[in-house]
């Protein structure tokens, strides 16, 4: 798959993803389902930010990559 996530979008995804993972880890035993969901969403955001590829963007025809 081609890259379709631009620099600013990648940085925002990594920052937001890190916040989600952190929140998920902090919530841990208090709300295990919400904690796992937040950590999962955060992990996907970090992965798409790190690789510059987003399958959802591809399906929607979105491309934020600066060319």
Automatic annotation (TrEMBL):
InterPro entries: YgaP-like_TM (IPR021309). It comes from the Archaea. It holds the Pfam family YgaP-like_TM. Residues 1-65 form the Inner membrane protein YgaP-like transmembrane domain. This is DUF2892 family.
């Amino acid at each position: 798959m081609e890259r379709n996530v631009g620099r600013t979008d990648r940085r925002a995804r990594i920052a937001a993803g890190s916040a989600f993972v952190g929140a998920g880890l902090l919530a841990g035993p208090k709300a295990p389902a919400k904690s796992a969901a937040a950590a999962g969403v955060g992990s996907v955001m970090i992965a798409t930010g790190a690789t510059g590829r987003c399958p959802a963007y591809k399906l929607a025809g979105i491309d934020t990559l600066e060319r």
